[in-house]
Amino acid sequence: MIGRRAIFLIGLLIGFAAVTFWPAQAHASSCESSVFNPITKVRWSCIFPITIGGVRVGPHDPLGSALDSQTASKPLCACRKGVTFWFGVKVSFWSPNRMVDVVTEPGCMMALGADILPTHGKLQGSQSSISDGTNTRKMFAQMHYYISPVWKMLDLFTDLPCLEDDGFDVALITEVLPTWQSATLGAIIQPEAILFGNPAAGLACMGDSAAAAAGKVVDPLFWCMGSWGATYPIAGDIHFDDSVEAWAGLAARGVFMMGRLGALTISSSDGCSFIPQPIWTKSRYKLQMMEPVKGGQCVNVGRPGALWSSAKHAPGKDNAQFMLFEKTICCAGVAVP
Fold first, then answer.
1. What is the DSSP letter of 238?
2. Is 82 a domain residue?
3. What is the DSSP annotation of 183-195?
4. Is residue 123 part of a domain?
């Protein structure tokens, strides 16, 4: 928690200078949202399948099937944390732990239902055509990343030792990060981006895109986001044909950026602890759109928009909000004195 706040405060100081001197852009949209309501906005069917001691409950999901198989083959577990020791059965499920805003209106905190950072026309989102004969466009938007442990907010399953105990928090807003506003600045602090900005790395993403269409992801291709584009450069610009797909791409890129900042963790395979993720494991995440239109399903990273984005872009609504579901593995048991 201290690390996240340090990153946020440092970025905030830098960002105020960026807001002051950055050239103004055309006003793109207005901030329209309401305070986050987990009961009505979350698609609760996305927590399935649940595996308890090797027994699967709910529909089969190809995403994370390897983790479910591992849980089924090793249903019993034992953990130790300090002087505390417990043993029990492994439980795995999809947990709604994070939210991501992708907004064209700077400072529009959709989870809070308020505009907290008036920029007077600066840092605005935009859309532009690319004159290279490909008929593609480029979108720019800001991203907000929230710590939002829904189970804790609803006071459910609080006795499970592997659920995060953090409260609601704003972990990052990109308006304060000059590197999000410029891919060139981003390359300075993320020099490995040069390694993946070449045709060979781009061709490797074709396999990830095909897998994403089948509901799977290829974790070793961490620089790819299937049909949503690439994780690099870590900035607010993204090429797109489908606006909803572009929103999802920027949301996923925000998750990847949190890992590069050292603020991303996942539950360990034994269900005993959380481990840091400087490079994300894409199969551990899926996204559900909450705004401007509530999505009817959760989608794996990179899933083609043609399979899920229809009728999700309400006219005049250019700000989007996503719930991020994380694959959680938990050793649920009884502590031994």
1. E
2. no
3. HHHHHHH-TTHHH
4. yes
Strand blocks (E) in the chain: 50-52, 55-57, 76-81, 84-103, 108-109, 114-115, 126-129, 137-140, 142-147, 169-173, 237-240, 265-267, 274-276, 285-291, 299-300, 320-336
- Domain range for 307: 2-46+95-325
Q: What is the pLDDT of residue 183?
A: 85
Whether residue 20 has pLDDT greater than 60: no
Q: Looking up tokens 């990052």, which residue turns up?
A: 172
How many structural domains comprise the chain? Answer: 1
* DSSP-derived 3-state class of residue 55: strand
Distance, in Å, from the CA atom of 288 to the CA atom of 336, rounded to the nearest integer, reads 39
Report the amino acid identity of residue 162.
C
Q: What is the pLDDT of residues 223-268, one digit of tens each?
A: 999 999 999 989 999 988 889 999 999 999 999 999 999 999 998 8
Specify if 305 maps to a domain.
Answer: yes
Give CA–CA dist 244/224, Å, rounded.
18
SS3 for 272? Answer: coil
Model pTM score: 0.85
